[in-house]
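Support request, please re-run this one:
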Amino acid sequence: MFKVTLINPPERVLDGSFKYYIPFSLLYLAAYLEERDVNVDIIDIKTEGSYLDIIKNRIFGYKDRLYYLVIDKIINETMSSSPNIIGISCITREYNSVMRIASILKKKLEVPIVVGGIHPSLYPEHFIYDNSPIDFVVIGEGEEALLELARFLEASRRDYDDIDGIAYLKDGEYHQTQIRTIKNDLSVSPINVYHKLNMQFYTRPHAYITRYVRISGVQIFTSRGCPYNCTFCSNSAMRFSFIPWASLAASYSAFSEISPWARASPMALESCLRLVVFK
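Re-run finished. Output below.
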């Protein structure tokens, strides 16, 4: 079966609070692809560092021993995955790490490398240029574009102009297809792919759920996008649509799926669901 391997960048491992944020973008991609018979692995390295390590990472820009250890683990696990396509999520502060990982993987594996996320969507030309290790940029929401790209590559098709919402090198020049129309579909749920992450790690007690009180907790989404347009946020530039609510059934399923890892009681599950429904 055709396989896509998705990578969570090292900065999301090394930052004190960020490492506890579930990579929902990768989960949604994985869920969408696997529902359509594309096999997906998620490379989401988790490693422990001291508080001093966290401070050093922030001061020295993630270039200490722990940083390179995480890079090596990402490379090794990606190679063991034997992918047909590699996808890497990227925000601006992760650009150098993403390009480093892509360069190493391009030398070791002869497979297309795709990037997506906020920075590639706003600045796709930063990734697509002559001798870049990146082959494609997915612009905006990526489920449909990545699936179509996987189908094209599996069939050895080269008419990438037929795929909306991507950028690539065409005849040696940067080329971008037309922007993909957002369908506002909330039917895609990551419920069936949580097992691809180390949920024991994400749901164990830590100090980043509520003001440094060590409790167990995890994030879920019952809507998509943001209703606000803050000028300091990428949402104002991306112009993603806000989709208000998932269905009650989907919300309940999300809570039910996570509760075994989070050790939530039925009463707690019902209380959380009431907050979602009646907020």
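DSSP finds eleven helices and nine strands in the chain. The beta strands are 3-7, 39-43, 85-89, 113-116, 136-138, 166-170, 173-176, 206-210, 213-215.
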